[in-house]
Design goal:
Blueprint lengths: L1 H27 L5 H27 L4 H43 L9 H18 L3 E8 L2 H8 L1 H17 L6 E6 L2 E6 L4 H16 L2 E3 L2 E3 L3 E8 L6 H17 L4 E3 L6 H18 L3 E10 L5 E12 L3 E3 L5 H5 L3 H22 L5 E5 L2 H4 L4 H12 L6 E6 H4 L3 H13 L3 E7 L6 H6 L4 E4 L1 H6 L4 H16 L3 E5 L4 H10 L3 E3 L7 E2 H20 L1
Parallel strand pairs: 6-7, 9-11, 11-12, 12-13, 13-14, 14-15, 15-16
Antiparallel strand pairs: 1-3, 1-6, 2-3, 4-5, 8-9, 8-16, 8-17, 9-10
Helix pairs in contact: 1-2, 1-3, 5-6, 9-11, 11-13, 13-15
Length: about 550
């Protein structure tokens, strides 16, 4: 019985000793219960000492069955402590593992497995500190996949995600092991090139472009991907992560605007692109803050001299800069996603006023300008149809003006959208005619009701024979292919008389009226009608 009691006590003590191993591990980990585990370790060591003292007692004394029972309890206690400590270690290790997985997930892109934007910012912060300590430079690329939204629409999200993974792999193949590639979000990637000068950075940029130039095979279809890459160098183009990434984005937009694969940030050109970024943000807010307004410029029929229609022209009442005309922010619209939101606002506002005019007896045409973005948006015709149904306008009373140059940017896509717009019953007008490069064959096929001569030719036609010839030829050409002609930029009576003699159908310009707010348009029309009637009596 003594031997069994000693064996049970020794085994219990051994279990307690083994329980100190996970306890020591738990004490070395950083968590809120570290101090509690340290206290538990001390208690376990005291228990081990107690087991030792009890063993000595058993050796030196005669024992009764009660001591055997106590030995069983001590053995059970050793099992319990070891089991509790070991299970606690397993549970805490699992929690640490889950936390590590979650931390990794929060710092990496789930689709590509690359560092995400937040993690990349941390990496750049660390690179700045390291570069400052060892006096090194590094380079950052911000790479955007051009027109990826169209690819996404064409092949679907699943295959578009697969394409993004393939693009990430090819960019990675163009870099060193020390370079860090991240997914910046959406269709953008960021690349950090440590200890790199401009010469090597350009070599890497060309290699990336070359690797991505090979078509990607997606379900048996070859898909080409083009990029715009903005390049910045530390510390030349910024001394903070925020500034570097901001300038990289500006350089990226410059690459897009100039249709080149990469663009190095140029501090001398910084202010203009930066202003565009600020203006884009302010314009986005302006749509929701009621800072926009529509002005209307009358169009006069040459046949009877009456107002035949109006062109709706947007005005932005900026709280600090005053009234801003479209010429100041049209470039911003063309290079951002604001085109659709702005077009929808303009159409709703224009058709609302047209309905009010109709109630007062006006039966005129209203013209609205579209941006290049609208001509590339397959969903826009459906949006237009909804807006016309909302305001119950006869489609033939709405004219959509499209610039001649806009027609030549991806003509096939534009043609599909234009044909859908035409099916809604609206009229089409080619604006700024004479400034683009459209062919006669293209004009004959294009479903435009009218051609609008660019005002630069009209303004100059009295003093420049070439401009006068271009205006006359345009009128003759348009009439020969069954189109009406509108001349804008009519600023004096001599121009009016000459255009009337040349057979122009409609006139627009300051000679009749500048663009007016809706209320002033009503007043102007009343005065214009009176003067028109008086002139007929004379």
């Amino acid at each position: 019985m003594k031997l069994l009691s000693l064996l049970l006590t020794y085994l219990g003590a051994i279990l307690l000793i083994f329980s100190l191993i996970p306890t020591k591990t738990l004490c070395g980990q950083k968590h809120h219960a570290t101090m509690a585990w340290r206290f538990l370790g001390i208690f376990i060591m005291l228990f081990i000492a107690g087991y030792g003292m009890f063993s000595v007692f058993l050796i030196n004394n005669e024992i009764s069955p009660i001591f055997l029972f106590i030995s069983f309890i001590l053995f059970g206690g050793g099992i319990f402590v070891y089991a509790v400590v070991k299970l606690a270690q397993i549970s805490i290790d699992k929690l640490f593992l889950m936390a590590e997985v979650e931390r990794h997930r929060s710092m990496h892109d789930e689709l590509t497995g690359l560092p995400n934007q937040n993690y990349f910012n941390d990496i750049v912060d660390a690179a700045i500190k390291r570069a400052n300590n060892i006096k090194q430079t590094f380079v950052i690329f911000l790479i955007d996949l051009n027109r990826f939204r169209e690819i996404n629409t064409a092949i679907g999200h699943f295959y578009a995600d697969f394409l993004l993974q393939e693009v990430a792999d090819r960019i990675g193949q163009s870099t060193r092991n020390s370079d860090i590639l991240a997914r910046w979000g959406g269709d953008k990637f960021a690349l950090l090139l440590p200890d790199t000068d401009l010469k090597r950075a350009i070599a890497v940029a060309n290699k990336i472009t070359e690797n991505l130039a090979r078509p990607f095979n997606v379900e048996g279809n070859n898909i080409s991907v083009e990029i715009s890459n903005g390049i910045v160098i530390y510390p030349e183009h910024g001394e903070s992560t925020e500034k570097l990434m901001q300038n990289a984005q500006i350089a990226m937009y410059e690459a897009q605007r100039n249709h080149v694969n990469y663009s190095l940030f140029d501090p001398d050109q910084h202010y203009s692109p930066f202003k565009k970024l600020i203006m884009a943000s302010e314009l986005r807010d302006a749509i929701h803050k009621d800072e926009l307004d529509l002005y209307f410029q009358p169009q006069i029929s040459v046949i009877n001299g009456k107002m035949s229609g109006v062109e709706a022209l947007i005005r932005w009442h900026h709280p600090e800069k005053g009234t801003i005309t479209p010429n100041s922010f049209m470039d911003v619209i063309e290079h951002t996603d604001l085109g659709k939101a702005l077009a929808i606002w303009v159409l709703n506002t224009a058709l609302k006023h047209h309905k009010e005019l109709s109630r007062t007896g006006f039966d005129i045409n209203i013209s609205v300008n579209l941006s290049i973005n609208n001509l590339h948006d397959y969903e826009f015709p459906a949006e237009l149809k909804k807006i016309m149904e909302k305001w119950q306008i006869a489609p033939n009373r709405l004219t959509l003006e499209i610039t001649e140059s806009g027609l030549m940017v991806d003509p096939a896509r534009v043609n599909k959208v234009v044909m859908e717009l035409k099916r809604t019953g609206v009229n089409m007008s080619i604006d700024d005619f004479g400034t683009g490069y459209s062919s006669l064959a293209y004009l004959r096929k294009f479903p435009a009701r009218e051609i609008k001569i660019d005002k630069s030719f009209v303004l100059d036609m009295l003093v420049n024979e070439d401009s006068a010839i271009i205006v006359k030829s345009t009128i003759d050409l348009a009439h020969n292919i069954g189109r009406l002609v509108v001349a804008e930029g009519v600023e004096n009576r001599d121009t009016y008389v000459l255009l009337k003699r040349l057979g122009c159908d409609f006139l627009q310009g300051f000679y009749f009226s500048k663009a007016l707010p809706y209320d002033e348009l009503i007043e102007w029309h009343e005065g214009y009608q009176r003067s028109l009637e008086q002139s007929k009596k004379r």
